[in-house]
Amino acid sequence: MKNQELALVIGNAIEQEQFDTALEQLTPLRPIDIADILAEIAPSLAWRLLDRLPNRATVFSYLDADVQELLARAFPRANLARVVGEMPSDERTDLYKHLDQAQKDALLPALAQAKREDIRKLAAYQEGTAGALMSSDYATLEPNMNVSTALATLRVEAPDAETIYHAYVIDSERKLLGVVSLRALILAAPHTLMHNLMISAPVHCKVDDNQEDVAKTVARYDLIALPITDEHGALVGIVTHDDAMDVASDEATDDFHKSGGVTSIVGKLKDASIGVLYRKRVFWLVLLVFGNLFSGAGIAHFEDIIAANLVLVFFLPLLVDSGGNAGSQSATLMVRALATGDVVMRDWFRLLGKETLVALCLGATMAVAVSAIGYMRGDEVVALVLAMSMMSVVMIGCVVGMSLPFVLNKLGFDPASASAPLITSVCDASGVIIYLFIASRFLALG
Amino acid sequence: MKNQELALVIGNAIEQEQFDTALEQLTPLRPIDIADILAEIAPSLAWRLLDRLPNRATVFSYLDADVQELLARAFPRANLARVVGEMPSDERTDLYKHLDQAQKDALLPALAQAKREDIRKLAAYQEGTAGALMSSDYATLEPNMNVSTALATLRVEAPDAETIYHAYVIDSERKLLGVVSLRALILAAPHTLMHNLMISAPVHCKVDDNQEDVAKTVARYDLIALPITDEHGALVGIVTHDDAMDVASDEATDDFHKSGGVTSIVGKLKDASIGVLYRKRVFWLVLLVFGNLFSGAGIAHFEDIIAANLVLVFFLPLLVDSGGNAGSQSATLMVRALATGDVVMRDWFRLLGKETLVALCLGATMAVAVSAIGYMRGDEVVALVLAMSMMSVVMIGCVVGMSLPFVLNKLGFDPASASAPLITSVCDASGVIIYLFIASRFLALG
Fold first, then answer.
1. What is the CATH code for B2-124?
2. Which residues of B touch A265 (CB under 8 A)?
3. In terms of CATH, what superfamily is B272-442?
4. How far apart are the C-alpha atoms of A112 and A341, rounded to whole Å?
5. CA pair distance A166, A240, nearest whole angstrom
6. Where is the signal peptide (chains A, B) (predicted)?
7. pLDDT, tens digit, for every residue of B293-338?
């Protein structure tokens, strides 16, 4: 609410060209907070204030892609080019990729030659790779520089670098030799040479590495920034800790959605259209309807035993669900453990053994519970049928739920696609058939 | 495999007291990689090598809590106290909290007075708060220091501080006045005073803030470290970006598990015992069995209509599952959006409207699919019953799935507890009753 009120006040000030009043309200705020307020103001007004902010490029970078695009349309070309020119290279490239062709064609010629080339280079990397995530704004040093020269170099590079807390030592062919921290620099004697001060063979990723691996590497080694190299070992960019944290969060959201049977949604749920929400969800739901052809066929096959023992129907929803629920639990544990790296492919066999034992215990508990209810509603034969069926259904659910993420991973799919609806579907059909098969062995045809 | 082989070689070297050989293998590695290898070696051997590593405290900090505890038992008291004394304050406190009383009593007197007090202070904060997460190793400056003095101060504080890239300006009562970055320091003229250089009223959290909010604040403002203040505004600690990233990942895992119907597991899945896995999963599964009493009662009530129209049973698993699946999708989207902050409580009403429209579209699609199959197996009346039931079941599933996380949040529970098994349970009973009720209006009793 407060943001919206402030946005109203500031919007009015801009309309009356009282830019100083508006700037006074905004300048004490952090860039992302300013961005949140500007997002509430009409683009035709907002660009005029944004253009006057000392940290306009940073603020612009924090806006959502769709707001950036609207503002880019409102901005006069020369002013837009100036703001875009000041943006960090990774944010600039992301913006460029979101513009339509006409906007791209208008913007590019207005940018300096070096920035144009930088955009073209960065935009060429495939989405989801380290290349598409990295920034080309990093500080470099030479191996034979001493500490005084290195500090002087960093002072010059600071305005354009995303971080100067890590500087990268490269040779004449830009090959990554080592990393020097600013902490080490200010603690070292002035004449120390970089090749003595640097950490050699630093942790790095390749441009075509998956962004998930980049985020994991940053997290594992607690890095402020991770250097990215090309196929020749030359330094081409860095990924900073904050971008890695965003990737980790996006990947978690993605896995979360997939596990719930929603193909991933790009952007904020609040802003997603009904059409997008429908399309992302309908696939798994309808697939289930057709998966039901199997359980339906199972029921048709055992129609006589059901007709003679209607008590079986009481427990059909429960037995069918229990397999799916136990399986979803197993899949949830595996999918997340594979995502965080707690579990790797070669652990499958050992985990399968453990899962089987857990499933036995869970199945036994469930069997006791369900057969107690079965005995009350039916007799001891019904109780026995239910106990045996529940045992089997839970075992199958657990083994399927546990193995499916591994199988999907092995086949090159995302293990998170082992979603609750998929496992429910598989367990439905097998649950129905097992239950009625066991029933047909023990119960009379009437 | 490589780690295990290296661990074998190094374990042998330690047994033969060839420490130089062992150290030669380890020193080029990063601390966390050394920790992974030491974890594979018997504690009675591992401590002897760890004690000789120049970065022993850092390596020790990277070990899992259970390995730390085993090593702490193997270490002679004086050596352990030395390593523990060198550890970062947050890691030291975590270790201390994991030790048993006898170990605590042995360790405390061997530590320096200041470290003892620091442990007592940090260990007093409640788990899950900023206080329990923060480190007391930060660098402070005074407002009237100039740049030269500030840099000299940071050089002195550097060995003990978690970061010197952000230093905190405090007054004589330790009240947090501002933050100065090392970047600003090395760019500023030597005589600039801190109160002119600092960013005033910096972003900070309170000691009793939830650790999830701490992680969100670090992510939102892209911070390297977040200062933590007490109720008087005095600086008492910092949370670094890497610890915030770990919290974000742990919280995501926790939500993921809860959504899958697993009460959260502490530690790595690979190492979890069968007993722990059983206990974390059995609750939701057994609850479902008793939830089934309701759907069972529904079926009992409509027994005659089922007996006369056995074709209804074919579609029972499908109808029951569809509500649960659609509901799980809704809940998944809401739980994650609430966790990332994309959606807040006051959005509920607007989202409910959107969800209802999405549910209408999804329900209609499913109704068409299921009534086609129903027509093939039965007749046009069965097709109509199925279409109407499917519509209702999907609508109910979506509204329940969407609202439950909000309701739980409002009641003070974790919204992630709106798990797939819970929603399945609710949708089972309502699905069965709606389906059979509609059938009883349209189908004859035979």
1. 1.25.60.10
2. 333
3. SLC41 divalent cation transporters, integral membrane domain (1.10.357.20)
4. 43
5. 10
6. none
7. 788 888 888 988 988 888 888 888 888 888 888 888 888 888 888 8
